From TrEMBL:
Biological process terms in GO annotation: lipid biosynthetic process
UniProt protein name: Putative thioesterase
Highest taxon above the source species: Bacteria
Stated family: Belongs to the thioesterase family.
Biological source species: Streptomyces azureus
Annotated ranges, domain Thioesterase: 16-244
Gene3D superfamilies given in the database record: alpha/beta hydrolase (3.40.50.1820)
Length: 260
């Protein structure tokens, strides 16, 4: 395990861990991560436009908009020191897309790309193409994932339908765009950095066995972990400990080469 001294020698600062959230959400699930990841890791949660501190900004619904918004931040981080990415569900597709774009730009590679609760782009899911379904068809799909709140907030005219459901629909549009771009040889294909894949033991959408198919999106062997929980396990205590340990372990064996 790397000490703070080893990290400082390798990159001049702790590993910067950029975290991206699931559809329809801000970055609240990463609130406890800074205390849980362990030493020499700085957690940087990256909210997409239209939520949290960026709630007044226009939401992005395609790959071009996503890259225009977040890629400059990651390019700067890549030049400043060691970094890694963790994305959960939609956030995993975002993290994969950013990693591919960083490679295309010739930026220094991340220590690793970590993907949670997300099927690989070539595997169809019930939510692919669901963004424009009427409420009576979309809501049961979301209910199967445990995404619907209980009580009146999810009823017609309720707060959840007015404030969260529009964000979720736009995020599903973004996910569709990112999956399509990943399948295009010009913008997709395997990443060259190490890939870690995390599954929830009881996830109804991305079951642990199904995540082995991320192998075709990585140049080297992937490392798979199963943690306790359903689809929304990003707020668990186990996950940040595993991701933080990966940061320290990979610093200990040396950072991956730049994609230049």
């Amino acid at each position: 395990m790397a000490s703070r001294t080893e990290v400082e020698k390798a990159g001049g600062r702790p590993v910067r861990l950029h975290c991206l959230a699931h559809a329809g959400a801000g970055v609240a699930s990463y609130r406890r991560w800074p205390a849980a990841v362990g030493p020499v890791v700085d957690v940087v949660a990256l909210p997409l436009p239209g939520r949290d501190s960026r709630r007044r900004e226009t939401r992005v619904t395609d790959r071009a908009g996503l890259l225009a918004d977040l890629l400059p931040t990651l390019l700067k981080a890549a030049e400043e020191g060691l970094y890694a990415l963790y994305g959960h569900s939609l956030g995993a597709l975002v993290a994969y897309t950013l990693t591919r774009a960083l490679e295309d730009a010739g930026a220094p590679a991340p220590l690793f790309l970590a993907l949670g609760a997300c099927l690989p782009p070539h595997v169809a899911t019930a939510l692919v193409g669901a963004a424009d379904l009427p409420d009576e068809e979309l809501l049961p799909l979301l209910g199967d994932l445990g995404s619907l709140p209980r009580g009146a907030t999810a009823s017609p005219g309720g707060l959840w339908r007015r404030s969260v459901l529009p964000v979720l629909r736009d995020d599903l549009r973004l996910a569709r765009s990112l999956r399509e771009a990943a399948l295009d040889p010009a913008t997709g294909g395997p990443v060259r950095c190490p890939v870690l894949v995390f599954a929830g033991s009881d996830d109804p959408l991305a079951a642990p066995n199904s995540l082995q198919h991320w192998q075709q999106w990585a140049s080297g062997p992937i490392v798979r972990h199963t943690v306790a929980g359903d689809h929304f396990f990003a707020g668990s205590a186990q996950l940040p400990r595993l991701v933080g340990r990966a940061c320290r372990d990979l610093v200990g064996v040396g950072a991956p080469e730049s994609s230049r």
